[in-house]
Amino acid sequence: MTYHPKSEFLNVMVSRGYLADCTDMQGLDDQLMAGVVPTYIGYDATAKSLHIGHLLNIMMLRWLQKTGHKPITLMGGGTTKVGDPSFRSDERPLLTPEVIDDNISGMQQVFARYLSYGDGATDAMMVNNAEWLDGLNYLDFLRDIGRHFSVNRMLSFESVKSRLDREQSLSFLEFNYMILQAYDFMELNRRYGCALQMGGSDQWGNIVNGIDLTRRVIEGHVFGLTSPLLTTSDGKKMGKSADGAIWLNGDMCAPYTFWQFWRNTTDADTGRFLKLYTELPLDECERLGALGGSEINEAKVILANEVTMLLHGADAAEAAEATAREVFEKGGVGDDLPTLVVEPGEAAEGISIVQLIVRAGLAKSGKDAKRLIAENGARMNDAPLEDAGLMIDTAALAQPIKLSAGKKRHALVKLG
Question: Which CATH number characterizes residue 383's domain?
Answer without folding.
Answer: 3.10.290.10
